[in-house]
Structure prediction request, 116 residues.
Amino acid sequence: MSVAVFIAVAILGIGGWGAGAKGFGAAMQQKTDAPEVKIDNFSFGPSTLTVSVGTTVTWTNRDDIPHTVVSSDDPKAFKSKVLDTDEKFSFKFDKAGTYPYFCSIHPKMTAKVIVQ
Ligand SMILES: [Cu+2]
Prediction:
């Protein structure tokens, strides 16, 4: 094998691996039946979560500080109580749309759920 062919194969190999890994990630996201948003270090992760209609999303407070999960819409689509460390809040999204939310204790913490 010449050096040029070797390099071409190596580049193609890396490109193929990258595309494969991305496809795998997307497939994993769509297959998740019970998606979870982790609250940690004053942020929601992922900050944008896309789910299908009828999905229940669970938020878990992994921070050592209390947080809440409150819909920014009016009227509010959902509102959690104050979540202490490791406490969870779940909400089932029955209607398509974009659901922005925030933490009422730290209003700079914002994120959204997209339901399609
Ligand atoms: Cu908070």
Observations:
- Residues 9 and 15 are 10 Å apart (CA to CA).
